[in-house]
Recover the amino acids of this structure.
């Protein structure tokens, strides 16, 4: 079985989040990859609903950004 069917839904969720709420999505990515400082002003833009267990691509991007 290929991985393509498993990645279609996370890809659709990631693209939908980036198109619908670009500032909140990018802020969430940078915040959880520890590239933004932890402060209350930025926490208002962070969307915790993007951190579902099935959102594999979002977690992949966070872990990739932690390397930098």
């Amino acid at each position: 079985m290929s991985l393509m069917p498993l990645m279609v839904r996370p890809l659709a969720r990631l693209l939908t989040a980036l198109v619908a709420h670009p500032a909140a999505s990018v802020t969430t990515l940078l915040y959880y990859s520890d590239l933004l400082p932890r402060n209350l002003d930025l926490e208002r833009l962070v969307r915790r609903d993007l951190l579902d267990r099935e959102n594999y691509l979002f977690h992949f991007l966070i872990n990739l950004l932690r390397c930098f």
